[in-house]
Design goal:
The structure is a homodimer.
Chain A: E1 2-5, H1 6-12, H2 17-31, E2 35-36, E3 41-45, E4 50-59, E5 64-73, E6 84-92, E7 98-103, H3 107-124, E8 131-135, H4 139-151, E9 157-161, H5 165-175, E10 179-180, H6 184-190, E11 193-196, E12 215-218, H7 231-236, E13 239-242, H8 245-251, H9 253-259, E14 268-270, H10 271-276, E15 289-292, H11 297-312
């Protein structure tokens, strides 16, 4: 059985084009019938201020299937531990034998979420867009910035806004060549692309702050109660794209807008269909486009498959 | 992180009284509000003739929670692999950190199922019962026999019946001091306790074969489509006991009888309540009692907790 530590996995996979291609295919697999993705398992530990999610599934044609167990225990930093942890188990889809333990401590989730945000963004923003605003100053904002820079067809000018100014400054220093925005409204009005990566439970981005032609990708809302975009913005968008529509309408950015009667499922498309060319993303330069990414196990499978293939090939 | 192989785990835990006590407590935890057991996860691989179940949960008060991933790929024996495999992951319930990988290859499931069958049986059979019939000749029958012998307060006289006579003979030889029954009806009529451990999908045990005073434990039916006992036997029993009533009524031995209108949920009790003394099991010597065990994650948690505690204590 292959066992890889976080540092070993970091050597094998990063924001590279092969990893991005795997994430892109993982979105398409959701739409073309290849994905077998059961509902996410969940168990809560309210007394310890923690929870655990189990994402698992199989993509038809793959030799492997993957089970990701990711926990968030939010009092951990007080005792010197990261709040998020994770491990990915890989099994043969032909014999059920365990093939690998990827003790990535959540790295692969951070990576695939960053890559996924970049893939979705470049599929929907105007090709000439350069002024990118990242909203958030955590781990996810870091990986988003790295993925955007690696995958940008024409370069990006990055700005960053965080609710905690000190954290935003620290992240900007870590990334280098990033401007820290002082005012979120001003920053949004100036942005050609806005990407939100916060655990906000009260919407941060107002509809009137977003200019015609702008693209917005929201990656923070991954469970009930989280919301980064005002529902009026969801309603105002000319195209709404979800990684998995059922999840987005249940607990993602499209949920509130639907609950308020502003949109229906028919007003949205899935990212995989846009990537595969079977649905239209951006129609006109002046359109506001919106991508909501809630996270799907196919991305975890794609990461695991890529890591294992590269490890076996001796990379 | 602690890692233990199957052979290491076999050295740590077997059909011993500490393990039985843990299994017994795991049944009680289902009934007394301590268990947090989400629905079992499932993914099927029809082309490979395989499936995978994910059982997980937490018992209030435990420092750990466990996730068991068990796969069955039924063409494996043709290529020299066991059809069942499994692994148990153990995490801190305080920080979410992964604490142990128990690569038990299904051993802990076999063991806890055998122990659970024995615990349920001795809680419900007449104290003076000695003539025990095991129906089945597979791995589960083996562990049942071992657990019955280790835990019997007053000794057991074991008989065995299997649909495959050769396998039954082989298992009897492996166990030693077991009589192989040639005719199932005759064997049932002579038995004071009957325990079924088969993957039967057509009932094996007829109602009229079971004598007054007999206790029957059924452990085979763990998923839809499986059934070992005629529904008339379920209807005829004086007491019906399930490890988890919701599972038994959904896909265990009580499901068909309820679907046929022969029983209702109110006609059944849970084993944990009997063990804790809050429900009555056997009322009279001449009663026919019935236990249906579908398998619950609390048992897997109890096994994992016991293994880890013993490993840490240097046993």
């Amino acid at each position: 059985m292959l066992q890889l530590s976080r540092s070993q996995i970091e050597q094998i996979i990063s924001t590279d084009s092969g990893a991005a291609a795997a994430v892109r295919d993982a979105y398409i697999a959701i739409c073309d019938g290849r994905a077998n993705v059961p509902p996410v398992g969940h168990i809560a530990f309210p007394e310890a201020h923690g929870d655990c999610h189990i994402k698992y599934g199989h993509i038809a044609g793959d030799d492997i299937f993957a089970v990701k167990i990711a926990a968030g225990f939010y009092d951990n930093p007080a005792c010197g531990l990261p709040s998020s942890t994770g491990v990915v188990l890989v099994f043969s889809a032909r014999t059920g034998q365990m093939e690998a333990l990827l003790n990535d401590e959540g790295y692969l989730t951070d990576l695939r979420t960053g890559l996924g945000g970049a893939v979705a963004t470049f599929a929907l923003c105007r090709p000439e867009a350069r002024r990118f605003l990242i909203v958030g100053s955590g781990t996810q904002a870091y990986w988003l910035a790295r993925a955007l820079r690696h995958l940008a067809p024409g370069g990006v000018e990055l700005s960053l806004w965080g609710r905690n100014a000190g954290r935003a400054e620290a992240l900007a220093a870590r990334l280098g060549d990033v401007r820290v925005a002082r005012n979120l409204e001003t920053a949004c009005r100036a942005a050609e692309v806005i990407i939100t990566a916060t655990p906000a439970t009260v919407p941060l981005i107002r509809a009137e702050w977003v200019q015609p032609g702008c693209h917005v990708t929201a990656i923070g809302a991954d469970s009930p109660g989280k919301q980064e975009l005002e529902s009026a913005l969801v309603a105002r968008a000319d195209q709404r794209v979800a990684d998995m529509l059922s999840q987005s309408l249940d607990h993602g950015e499209f949920a509130t807008a639907r609950a308020e009667g502003l949109i229906t499922a028919a007003d949205c498309v899935e990212l995989g269909a846009v990537l595969a060319g079977s649905a239209v993303g951006r129609r006109r330069p002046e359109d506001i486009t919106l991508a909501d990414l809630t996270g799907v196990a196919t991305q975890d499978i794609a990461m695991a498959r890529t890591v294992i293939a590269r490890a076996k090939a001796g990379r």
